[in-house]
Amino acid sequence: MQNNEHPSIERIFNLVEMQRHAVGVSFMPDTKSYEKYQTGVTVLHVLSMDLKTALQNMKNQFNTYGVIRVAGYDNSISPLKSKVIEIEFSTDEIDEIERK
User: Fold this and answer.
1) I need a labelling partner for 73 at 20 to 30 A (CA). Which of 21, 64, 85, 100 fits?
2) What pLDDT score was predicted for residue 3?
3) Cα(first)–Cα(last) distance of the chain, in Å?
4) Rounded to two decimals, what is the model's pTM?
5) DSSP string, 12-52
């Protein structure tokens, strides 16, 4: 897959921070993120991009790809026992995102 086929950091930021959706992220097999989070993660906040930068990039239709740092849940842990943790992954490793 090419970068433009993967969700950009701005797209994830828009869904999570602007539209206020939690986002489920699943990863492609044979990636580091999949090895660590086989059942995916739920993203609650984007930590690696500020609002000003995100808005400027979206206005200019400029998308960035690469490592994103978020706050969320490891989906392999029961929701009753799960705590919000800091998670890093690469947008290149994303298989699918889903609004929750």
Assistant:
1) 64
2) 43
3) 25
4) 0.88
5) HHIIIIIS---EEEEE-TTSHHHHH-TT-EEEEEE-SS-HH
Amino acid 43 reads V
Structure tokens at 7: 């969700």
Domain ranges of the chain: 9-99
Length of the chain in residues, anyone?
100
Question: What pLDDT, in 10s, does the model give residues 63-98?
Answer: 999 999 999 999 999 878 889 999 999 999 999 999
Whether pLDDT at 28 is above 90? yes
Q: Is the distance from CB of 28 to CB of 91 less than 8 angstroms?
A: no
Q: What does the buried/exposed string (b/e) look like for 14-26 if buried means 16 or more CB atoms within 10 Å of the residue's CB? A: bbbbeeebebbbb
